[in-house]
Amino acid sequence: MSGSGRGAGSALRVEGLRAGYGKITVLWDVDLHVDEGELVTIIGANGAGKTTLLRAISGLVPVRAGSVTAFGARRLAGLSPARIVRSQVGHVPEGRQLFPLMTVRENLESGAEYLPHARASAARNREFVYGLFPRLAERAPQLAGTLSGGERQMLAIGRALMSDPKLLLVDEPSLGLAPALVRTVFAALQEIRARGVTVVLVEQNVQQSLRISDRAYVLENGEVVKAGSGAALLGDPEVRAAYLSM
Amino acid sequence: MNRLLRDLLVALALGGLLALLPAALRELFGRSAVSYLTLATNALLLGVLALSWDMLARTGQLSLAHAAFTGVGAYSAAVLLRFAEVPVWLGIPLGGVLAALLALVLGAATLRLYGIYFAIATLAFTEVLRTVVQKLPAHIAGGAPGINVPPLFRPTFVAGQMERWEVAFLRNQGYFWVYLGLLVLAVAISIALQRSRLRSAFTAIRTNEEVAGVMGVNPARTKLVAFAVSSFVAGLLGAVEAHRLGSVSPDGSFAVHTTVLALVTPIFGGLYTTVGPILGAGVLAALEETLKRTFSEGYLIGYGIVLVASILFMPRGLVGLLTGIGRRLTGRGSRGAGATTGTLDGTPLPSGDPPSASTEAKP
Description:
- The complex is a heterodimer of chains A (246) and B (363).
- By secondary structure, chain A is α/β, with parallel strands linked by helices.
- Chain A has one domain (10-243): Rossmann fold (3-Layer(aba) Sandwich), CATH 3.40.50.300.
- Chain A is built from 11 helices and 10 strands.
- Chain A has helices at residues 50-58, 81-86, 104-113, 116-120, 122-132, 134-138, 149-161, 179-194, 206-212, 230-235, 237-243; strands at residues 10-21, 24-35, 39-44, 63-70, 74-75, 89-92, 167-171, 198-203, 215-220, 223-229.
- In chain A, helix 3 (104-113) runs parallel beside helix 7.
- Chain A starts with 9 loop residues before the first strand and ends with a helix.
- Chain B is 71% helix and 2% strand.
- Chain B has a domain at 3-256.
- Chain B has 16 helices and 4 strands.
- Chain B is globular and about 70 Å long.
- With 363 residues, chain B is mainly α.
- At the A-B interface, helix 2 and helix 3 of A face helix 9, helix 10 and strand 4 of B.
């Protein structure tokens, strides 16, 4: 997490991105950009392609056309996930995906273990994670499989932070969490952004996610149909009707 | 002293102690010591086989190709000795190296296969290899009857100074020490893996390969490392066994039975640990011998019942069972949310009930 506040540079630029699974194309010519230090949310209905978008950026889904560029010059399309994370692009996957038979501490350490740049800053990042989620410090020797849903989400975010990202992709962190825990997780994302880490958030909790976002994109059927500031989209009648039932 | 060095020294010390077993058996049982020594040697062999299989299983790959690796090790030693007169001390390690090279080829070809598809591919590979060896010209690989391989130990009977049974004892003692050496080597490799970054890389790949990727693990490379290490040990074992049995043959050296033992033993003893496969080997070897002596006919039925029962009632194997008993005895109750425990080689286990099969399954 070597960012130092909001800058003017580009953290992520996606142009004409097409991606999918097998014969099915999920994303159709998606364009978006995220500036350094921003918190940008991708909203959309189930099956709109939000998760696929994050997975394509991380290299988990092959890019069929278009380009993905991080920090102005680093082309990510075609690289393996292991190479992309070395470009300081972290990913908190949907469903947390922890290692249940490893302790909280081991799960955290595993986030930095294979990345030379992250190993060098592991102690600092661990302190940041424990400061962000004191519950994880208390549970450090406990097995991840015994944690509650909220704690698991904290650990999933913490593990990704241990990879020392400058750009963090977060997939549905509020999924299955009680409202109080959702607020905790969103507050943590704001704190992460305040530390200089650019955040791209995929969420179905539209109201709360737009509130904390600098900007947002609306994805429908694999295409970007709207973009704007979080506040503007919160006030958009179509967004309110489609996602907020208002 | 770091943990790796400490564990290696403990393994070496235990190996040293175990090296005294033949002398102790001879002292205790006299003539009967030969059969006990054979049993102990078989247990060591099974331990090496099981531990080598477990090293690959830690990446989540259920390989059914272990007989292929032991077979290649056996045939390499036999063929190299036959045509190039490669000395035994070189032929056995070369058996391991060739098995590892073959594993890299198989590993690269099956990287994208998972679960049952990977298992079937590896089983098919063994069968293909067996058939190829059988169909090779007889002057190369000996055809279906195979090739004779000289023994590593030929103790001579000295009339008046020793009894007849002592010749068999000395021969078995030699193999016991060789297998003990192999087991110490396998344990050292296993401990080194468990104490290195590869341990959590293996766990990550086994739990979720995609997540492993976004953590910076290269799953393909890591699985190939596991494949090579596992098959190297299996190849060494096959080469030594060729000398012990006195011959190699397609049906014997590539027998599916070898693969079955390689995977059943760690499951029985405790997967993904160093101690589990060895413990499983000791107990299963003793169980098989006892059943054989009790029910000379159909002892395999009893053996099968024990294995099925153990899988049903000991999902984490003997290691899980013993760890649970240890927890109860020491009063470290299992219900506290903060409780953590570890297996004998430091692999943590969850408190409370054993995890269900889905605990570590891919989402």
